Amino acid sequence: MFKNYIIVAWRNLLKNKTFSLLNIVGLAVGLACFILITMYVMDELSYDKHNEKAERIYRINSDIRFGGNDLRLAVCSDPMGATLKKDYPQVEQFVRIYNSNGSKMLKKGTAFIEETKVAHADSTIFDVFTLPMIAGNPKTALSEPNTVVISKSAAEKYFGTVDAIGKGIEVNDEQHTVYKVTAVIKDMPQNAHFNYDFIFSMDNVEYGWGNFLSHNFQTYVLLQPGTDYKAFNKNFKQVIDKYILPQAKQLMQINSMEDFARTGNKLEYSLMPMLDIHLYSDRFPELGVNSSIQYVYIFSAVALFILLIACVNFMNLSTARSSNRAKEVGIRKVLGTGKKLLIGQFLTESTLMVFIGLLIAIGLVWLSIGYFNNIAGKTLGITMLLKPGYLLFLLLIPVVTGVLAGLYPAFFLSSFQPIAVLKGRTGKAFSRSNFRSALVIFQFFTSIVLIISTIVVFKQLNFIQNAKIGFNKDQMLIVNGTWALNNNADAFRNEVAKMSGVKASSFAGYLPVSNSSRNDNTFSTEAVMNEKNGFNMQVWNVDYDYIPVMGMEVLKGRNFSKEYGSDSTALIINETAAKMLGFDDPVGKKLYTLVGNDNELVSYTIVAVVKNFNYESLRKNVGPLSMRLGYNKWATAFKVSATDVTALLKNIETKWKSMAPDMPFSYQFLDDSFDNMYRAEQRIGKVALSFALLAIFIACLGLFGLAAYMAEQRTKEIGVRKVLGASVTSITTLLSKDFVKLVCIASLIAFPVAWWAMSTWLRDFAYRVSISWWVFGLAGFVALLIAVLTVSSHAIKAALTNPVKSLRNE
Amino acid sequence: MLLELKNIFKWVTVGGNRVFLLKDVNLQVQEGEFISIMGPSGSGKSTMLNVIGMLDGFDEGEYNFLHESVHKLKEKQRAQLYKQYIGFVFQQYHLIDELTVYENIETPLLYQDVKSSERKAMVADMLDRFNIVGKKDLFPAQLSGGQQQLVGIARALIAKPKLILADEPTGNLNSKQGEEIMDLFTQLNKEGVTIIQVTHSEKNAAYAGRTIHLLDGRIEQQVTN
Ligand SMILES: Nc1ncnc2c1ncn2[C@@H]1O[C@H](COP(=O)(O)OP(=O)(O)OP(=O)(O)O)[C@@H](O)[C@H]1O
Ligand SMILES: [Mg+2]
C-alpha cells in the first residue's frame, strides 16, 4: 500500500512539473532559512554550556548609584571573592579575571606582536571553568608569579609546536617580564562569553590590593550543589556592613548604609548565573561581545514564520491543484477507497515533497552558510547538522512539515463527493475558499511586517550615521599604542603633524567611542565628602588640543590654555554634569576629588562647559563627564584631509618604524570605530533584509502558482468575456482584484503589529528615529506592487490568449 | 460588402499529416444578409463560423472585414468589434458559471458603459421577451439546456449587434421555441442586422436568404432561397 502511495506521489510530482517545482523550491528556500536560523539560535543558546559545572558558576555583578550617576558593572572589588569563600560555606571556589587594557605586546622572535586575547586570572580558574589541558598541571599552573597558560594555537604560533611547557614569553611591560609557559590548553570554544589565548598569573597584576571600594575584577564563584543563588544574594548586605562600610567611613563621611540609601545612593551586589551572561548581560565591562535574548526571540519568530509561509504555499498550491486530482479521488472512491486511506495517501505525498525540499534545502544551507556567517557574525559550520540531536530534528522536519502542510489539502481532497467530482464540479468550491484567502493574507502579513522592520532598522542606522554626536568623527586618524614610544611620543606626534595632509593633532588616550579607556572618579561639591555631596563622573586627561581637534564645542567659559598658569587644576565639564551639579553658572565653581594611593583631597575649578557629546553608543544617554589637563599618550589623534590617505599612512608607518622598530604599527579611523559600535544593529538590518526578501520571494512563488491556477480555472470565463468585448485591462483587473483586496487586508493587520514590534526594538536606543506613516505606506505599496506584478503576468497572458482556445477546452 | 473570405485554408497537423478543417473557402457577405450554413457533423461549420467571428485564425488565404484585413486588426480593435458590432450565440452556450442569468445577460452592457438604469430596463426587456423572468436569479448550472440556450441568445442580442453569428441557436429548443427564435431573427434581419447561422434543420435554414452547404471543410454548394 505504502509503496503504491509513493509511486503515485512520484508520478504526480512529475506530471505537474511547474506546480511541483514551485512547491519544492518554495519549501526548500523556506526550510533552508529555517535550518540556518535554528543553527544560529542553537549556537546562541549553547554558550558556556561546555563547562562541566556550568550550572553552579555565577558572576558577581555590582549596581552602584552615587551622586545621581548609575553604574551597572560586571566587575566587583578584588577581595570580594575570597571574602565570600571565607565566610560562606556555600561558596566552593572563586576566580577573578582581570584584563585592564585588553591587549599586550608579546615578543615573537625579535619583534613584538599585539595580542588581544589576553587576561590575568587566579590559579583557581581551572577549578571553576572547564579548560581541558593538553599538557601541564591545572593545580599548579598559575599558582606562581611569572607564569602563563597558553592555548594550542598560541603555542603553535609562538613555538611552532604544542610542546611549549617551560618556554618563555617576553611581555613589553616596564620590566620586560618573561613569563614561563606552565600549561597548554585546548583552544577555548567560540561559544563562550570569554575567549583567551594567554592566561597570565594574577600575581603579576600591580594593584592596590584589598580595596573594597574599587571595582575592577570579573569575579566568578562556584556554589555548592543545591545552593539557591537568589537566597544567597541576601548575604551581600552582611558583607557590605562588615567589610565595605568601615572602608567607606574612612574615606568619606558615610556612617551607615541607611544614610547612604536615603540620599538616593545605592550599593548592591548580586550573583548572575554564568549561563545567562551571553544572552542577558549588558554591563560594563564585559569580557566579550554579548548577544541579546531579544535577538534570539526575533530570529526564532522569523524562522517559524518563514517555515509557515513555505507551508502555506504548499497548502495553497496543493489545494489549487485539487481539481486536477479530483477525478482520481472520485474514481478511487467509487472503487471503494476509504477517506482515511486517501488522507494517508496525500500525507505521504506531501511528506515526500518536503523530503525532497529538505535535501535541496541542505544544499542551499551548504551554499549560503558562508554568507550567513558573514552577516550574522557567526562561525557556524555545516557539520553542526551532523550532531545526533540535530540530525533527529532534521529528520523530524519533513514529517512535521509534511503533515502540517499536507493536512488541509488531504482533508480537502478526500472530502470530494464522487458524483460531483466526476461531473467536474469542484473548482468552484475551491476558488471561493475563505481558507485560501486567509493563507494568502497570512503570507502577505508576514512579508509586510518584515518589510517595515527592515525599513525601520535601516532608518535607525542611517540616523545613527548622521546623528549630531557632538564631536567630529570624520577623517580622524587614531594611531594606537603611542605610549610605547616613551619619550619619543612627542617627537612622533610633532613629526607626523608636519606631514602634508595632516591638519592637527592631539594625544587622545580617551576616545568618544565604546570600548575605549575610561576613568571615573568620585567628586564632591564641598571639601568634606559625604553621601550627599558626592557623585561619580568620568575624568579624562586631555591636552590643550583635544577639544578643538575633536571638534567639541565649548558652550560657556574657555578651553585649557597655556596662557593660564593655573590650568593644572582646571576642569571642563559636560552639560550633563553641569545639570547634575545644579549651579546656575558652573564656571568658576570648585569641585573636590581624592587622588593617588593615599587618597589626597584635591580641588578643581570649573573653567568651561562643553556641549554634550555621545562618548558611548547612542543606546545610552550621555553621562556626566569632565576633562582635566594631562597627557594621556596611550593613543594619538590626527585630523587628516582626504587627499591620499594610503600614502599618508605609509609615511606615518615609516616614521613609526624608525622610532620603534620592534613595535607593531596599529591605527584606526574614528568613524570606523564609531560604526563598530553598531555592528549588532547593522547585522540585524542585513539579516532582516535578507529574510524579508526571502519571505517575499516564497510568498511570490505561492502567489504565482495560485494566479496561474486561477487564470487556468477561469480561462473559459475570460474567453467568454473577451467575446463580449472585454479589454485586456479589464480582464487583468478582474483577475488581480481579489489578490489586491487580500494584500490590503494583510496590510491593515500588519501595520499595528509591525509598529508595536519596531517601537519595542527602538526603545533600546536613548536616541532614536520615529516611525513615520510613510514607512507603512511604502511597505504596503511594495507588497501591492509585487502582488500585482506577480498576478498580472498570468492575467495578461490569459487575457491575450485566443478566445477559441479557451472555449474549445470545455 | 461586410466581409469576404478568399481561398481560406485551415489545418491541424496530426502525427505529421495535415488534416484540413477548411479547404479553399470563398465567401462574400453583404450587409443585411441572412445566411444559413449546413452540413453533416464534423464538416467544419463551427470552425468556419469561428473564423468569420475572428475567434480562431486560419493558415492560408485572405479575410477582409469591413474592408480591413483581419490579419492587421489589433487586439484592441477586435475587442472594439466584439463590443459594438458582433453578437455570438454558441453551440455550447458558454455562459459564465459564476454569474446569474440576469448578470450574464447584463455583461455586454457593462463593457459598453451603459448607464445602470438603462441596463436594468434593457435586461428586463430581454428577460421578458424570452420568457425567463422567473429564472433571472438562477445560476447556469440550475437551468435546463434549452433555458441556457435562450440566455445565450438573449445575451447576444442585448447589445443590438449589427452582425449575429449563431451556432445552432435552436439545437436544444422545441419546435415552437425554435420558430419564435427564427421569427425574431427574421425581424432583426428586416431591421438591417446581418445574420449568419449554423443549423441542422432544413426548416430553419429556409428562413435565410442563402444557404451554404459544407462537406469536409469545403463549400459544396450555395443555394439562394
Ligand atoms: N483543434 C482541433 N484538432 C483536430 N481536429 C479538430 C480541431 N478542431 C476541430 N477539429 C475537427 O474539425 C472538424 C470540424 O469541426 P467543427 O466543430 O467545425 O464541426 P461542426 O461542423 O461544427 O460539427 P457539429 O455539427 O457536430 O457541431 C471535426 O472533424 C473536428 O474533429
Ligand atoms: Mg459545431
UniProtKB/TrEMBL annotation, chain A:
Ranges of residues in domain ABC3 transporter permease C-terminal: 301-418, 690-798
Keywords attached to this entry: Cell membrane, Membrane, Transmembrane, Transmembrane helix
Example of a GO cellular component annotation carried by this entry: plasma membrane
A Pfam family reported for this protein in Swiss-Prot or TrEMBL: FtsX
Compartments, as annotated in UniProt: Cell membrane
Topological relation to the membrane, as annotated: Multi-pass membrane protein
Domain MacB-like periplasmic core: 20-238, 469-613
A GO molecular function held by the record: transmembrane transporter activity
Protein name as catalogued: Putative ABC transport system permease protein
Species per Swiss-Prot/TrEMBL record: Lacibacter cauensis
From TrEMBL, chain B:
SUPFAM superfamilies for this protein: P-loop containing nucleoside triphosphate hydrolases
Keyword Nucleotide-binding in annotation: yes
UniProt GO cellular component terms: membrane protein complex
Annotated ABC transporter domain residues: 3-225
Keywords: ATP-binding, Lipoprotein, Nucleotide-binding, Translocase, Transport
MF (Gene Ontology): ATP binding; ATP hydrolysis activity; transmembrane transporter activity
Domain of life, per lineage: Bacteria
Transmembrane segments: none
PROSITE patterns in alphabetical order: ABC_TRANSPORTER_1, ABC_TRANSPORTER_2
Protein family membership: Belongs to the ABC transporter superfamily. Macrolide exporter (TC 3.A.1.122) family.
PANTHER family registered for this protein in UniProt: CELL DIVISION ATP-BINDING PROTEIN FTSE (PTHR42798:SF6), LIPOPROTEIN-RELEASING SYSTEM ATP-BINDING PROTEIN LOLD (PTHR42798)
Protein name per Swiss-Prot or TrEMBL: ABC-type lipoprotein export system ATPase subunit
Source organism of this protein record: Lacibacter cauensis
